[in-house]
Each structure stands twice: as C-alpha cells, then as structure tokens.
C-alpha cells in the first residue's frame, strides 16, 4: 500500500537532458493545460498545496516528481495551450517525448480530461501515443461535480463513443469538490503494485 499522505516534492526538470535515470516505479499524470492535474494530485495526497495550483493555463512548464515511499508520482506539463510560444511548445513536446522514451518503469498513465466536454484532439493524440507505446492508461474525467444528473448521464454515454478506439480503458469521474474518484484512483494504483494489473 502506498502512503499517499507521506508524499513530498522531489524535483522538477525543464529539459529532457536533465531527467535522471529511472530508479523507482512511476505513476504519470498528463492532460491539457488547466484541466486540474495539480488539484488532483493534492487530493490524492490529501494535501492542500503540495502540487502548486494556478488559474493560469500553461503555468506548469516542468516535469515535477513527487516521492511517496518507493513510488514517484509524475506531473507532466499541460498540453494544448494556444497562447504559449511555438518554441515553448516545442520544448514541452521534446521534454515529454524524452520522458516517455527514457526507459522508465511507468506503471500507469492517468490522462485527465474535462468531463463536461468531449476529449480534445490533443487528448486523443496523447491516448493514441500511449496506446502505441503499450502503457497502462486510465481516463480521469475532472470537474464531474459541475454536471447535473442528466448532463452526467449524457456525457457518460458519449464517452463510450468518444473513447471507442481505446478498448476497456477505465474511466474515473473526479471532483475536487466532492472528492469523487479519489478512492477509486488510489485503489487502482494500489492494485497495480499488488500484481492486479487487470484494473486497466
């Protein structure tokens, strides 16, 4: 079992050449800018501000590592923010690609999307890339509390079609307000380290 409350910031890297060699299994969080990765990590760790939350999209421009015992939780830079310069987008892209191609022990990639809307083109591209690489993935649909019951039912049905190319991907609705999804995500991660990889 992972002691989430004991998580601590370990390091941040802005260039692929700075990435250290892999030394621990890693759980990765990816998603477009401002989708709520830092907020999700704080809820997962039961901490208020371990991962810095910003209302400004594109604020996280480094790969941030958080250590929880023998596991690293890795927060990737958000993608898809139009107002970032091309050179900065290129740097982020190279950084993320270098990360995934550096032989790391990546146990799970959590791709965050906004549950109120269909996955973006960038979300689908990320999922396709991860599928081609053979990584275990789950789709974490944030801001579920902002939907009423009818809207939620409609979005859940639509997601089946929108994610049809990713067979059996686990969809986890998440809310930073109600804490929905936190226990399910923790359990899913714990199962991976107990040899139960059937959760994804």
Describe the largest sheet.
7 strands, mixed
Assign the structural class, choosing from mainly alpha, mainly beta, alpha/beta, alpha+beta, or little secondary structure: alpha/beta
From the N-terminal CA to the C-terminal CA, the straight-line distance is 18 Å
Task: Give the C-alpha Rg.
Answer: 16 Å
Q: Mean pLDDT score, rounded?
A: 87
The run of helices and strands is: EEHEEHEHEHEH
* Beta fraction: 15-25%
Q: Give the helix tally.
A: 5
Principal-axis shape = globular
Strand order of the largest sheet: 1-3-4-2-5-6-7
Tell me the number of strands. Answer: 7
Low-confidence stretches: 54-58
DSSP helix fraction? 25-40%
List keywords for this structure.
200 residues; alpha/beta
Write the layout of secondary structure elements.
Layout: E1 8-13, E2 26-31, H1 37-45, E3 63-68, E4 71-75, H2 86-100, E5 106-114, H3 121-133, E6 137-142, H4 149-162, E7 170-173, H5 182-192
Task: Describe, in short, the structure shown.
31% of the residues lie in helices and 21% in strands.
Can you describe this structure?
The protein is 31% helix and 21% strand. It has 200 residues and is an alpha/beta fold. The protein has a seven-stranded mixed sheet, with helices on both faces. The protein is globular, with a radius of gyration of 16 Å. Residues 54-58 have low confidence and may be disordered.
């Amino acid at each position: 079992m992972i002691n989430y409350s004991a998580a601590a910031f370990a390091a941040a890297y802005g260039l692929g050449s700075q990435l250290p060699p892999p030394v621990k299994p890693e759980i990765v969080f990816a998603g477009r800018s401002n989708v709520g990765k830092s907020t999700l990590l704080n809820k997962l760790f039961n901490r208020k501000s371990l991962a810095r939350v910003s209302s400004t999209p594109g604020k996280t421009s480094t790969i941030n590592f958080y250590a929880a015992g023998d596991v690293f939780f890795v927060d990737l830079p958000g993608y898809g923010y139009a107002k970032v310069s091309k050179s900065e987008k290129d740097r982020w892209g190279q950084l993320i690609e270098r990360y995934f191609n550096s032989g790391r022990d990546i146990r799970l990639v959590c791709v965050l999307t906004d549950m109120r809307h269909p996955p973006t083109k960038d979300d689908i591209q990320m999922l396709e890339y991860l599928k081609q690489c053979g990584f275990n993935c789950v789709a974490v649909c944030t801001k579920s509390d902002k939907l009423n019951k009818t809207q939620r039912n409609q979005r859940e049905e639509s997601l089946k079609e929108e994610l049809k190319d990713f067979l059996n991907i686990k969809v986890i609705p998440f809310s930073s307000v109600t804490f929905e999804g936190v226990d399910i995500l923790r359990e899913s991660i714990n199962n991976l380290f107990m040899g139960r990889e059937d959760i994804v």
